Amino acid sequence: MINKIQDICWDQFKGPYITSKEEIVKIINLLLSADYEDFDEDELDYILYNDFAGNIKHQYTIYNIIFPVLDFFDIVGKGGKKQLAYKLLDVFDYIFIEYYRVSTFILTEPVRFSMNPCNILEDKENIENIAFKKYKEIFKKNFLINELDYMTDLYYRTIFSDSIKEIEKIIYFDQESTIERLTTNLISMGITKFKYNNYDSEDSLIKILPNNQLNCILKAINHLPHDETLLTECFESNESSSFIWGRGSISLLAIDSFLIYNFNNDKKILSFLKKLPYLYEKWKNEYEKLKVMYELDFPLYKYIIEDITSIMFKEYLGFSNSKNIKIFTPVQRTVYDLLNYDLKIHSYSLLYAGIKPQKIDISLIENINDIYNCYLST
After folding, report:
1. I want to staple 309 with a disulfide (CB 3.0 to 4.6 A). Which of 102, 226, 347, 362 is the partner?
2. Phi, psi of 62 (to 5 degrees)
3. What is the 3-state secondary structure (H, E, C) of 214-245?
4. Could you tell me the sign of the dihedral formed by the alpha carbons of 290, 292, 295, 300, in that order?
């Protein structure tokens, strides 16, 4: 493996700094100099997230030095350093965060999109898009689904899927499956169905799951009948689970599942939207009571708004032309007015859909530090 890594050519590639190439090579040599277990976890995190990732991506720009880094990742994935390979996945989570989000629309970390971007997955000449496709190919080739890392592997394969059949081939259900495995399977299948707007697959085991809150959520996200009362009770839940999607938040998953299941039921969507101002203030107050040591870009109350607007404006996501609100359906217009006039906020998902805040000129949007405070900034 060492010989293969030494054969990687770095000469024609650049990072954000003059010293990026030397820094990355130095870190790679360090990573290979000892067993994974020999590293202090905090020290390793600092090296990977600050020194390593910081010399590949600066702000929102991924530099072409990502290509030899991906060659290194490929070699590690094929070799015996499995723990290191999985740790590198965490680093790529940061590097490719925008691509994760636009690959699933929901339940992956939200992103600060700008106004009127192109669909980054469709920009064939974009260096970042080419790198992301290479990253996907390496993962699919080297990270085979296995029992030990099943939830992690399925999470990534769902993001990287190119069709619903690709996920159906991996997922299987049986009476012996653990709760964690069932949950991971059903969330991944529900997201994939939503992603490709295909709800034809038959999931017989889901139908026989006992009625509890989590199972109601899993049924709803897969477009199957469920106990609606139990589902809506989850909207105010403070509980979290072990699944990777949506930080494990029960309330976020419940709301997404409700909206997906009732997508064409205007009456139920409008009924939910009447409660949204109360729910938003509740989530926001709970976050502020936590007195966190550092401000999250997307605390849960913003994360939920990002997912709501992604679902309700899904058909516009990634289209670069600015939208006139006259084209909105009555439900979409209600969502837009609720955010802009009642809550006085906007979302980055709306920006990605080409939808600007009301009465704010497009030229001013790039100067707004936080789109959720856009009406305080003007």
Report:
1. 347
2. -100, 125
3. HHHHHHHHCCCCCCHHHHHHHHHCCCECCCCH
4. negative
Q: How far apart (Å, rounded) are the C-alpha atoms in residues 281 and 301?
A: 8
**Among 58-72, 227-241, 350-364, the least confident range:** 350-364
Residue extents of the structural domains in the chain: 164-261
The DSSP call for residue 359 is T
| Residue entry with tokens 């997307």 | 298
Determine whether 26 is exposed, middle or buried from the number of CB atoms within 10 Å of its CB (0-12, 13-18, 19+): middle
pLDDT band at 122 (very low <50, low <70, confident <90, very high): low
What number is the average pLDDT over the span 192-217? 75
Contact status, residue 355 vs residue 326, Cβ threshold 8 Å: no
pLDDT tens digits for range 163-184: 888 887 777 655 556 677 778 8
Question: DSSP class of residue 249?
Answer: B
Q: Measured in whole angstroms, how far is the alpha carbon of residue 143 from the centre of its chain?
A: 19
Q: CB of 74 within 8 A of CB of 142?
A: yes
- Strands 61-62 and 57-58 come out as antiparallel
369 is written with which tokens?
A: 């530090």
Q: Compute CA 10 distance to the chain's CA centroid, rounded to the nearest angstrom.
A: 31
Find, among 100, 330, 333, 302, the residue nearest to 195 by Cα: 100
pLDDT at 117: 55
Q: Which residues pair with 61 in a beta bridge?
A: 58
Q: How far apart are CA 188 and CA 182, in angstroms?
A: 10
Q: In whole angstroms, what is the distance from residue 378 CA to residue 376 CA? A: 6
Single-letter residue type at 239: E
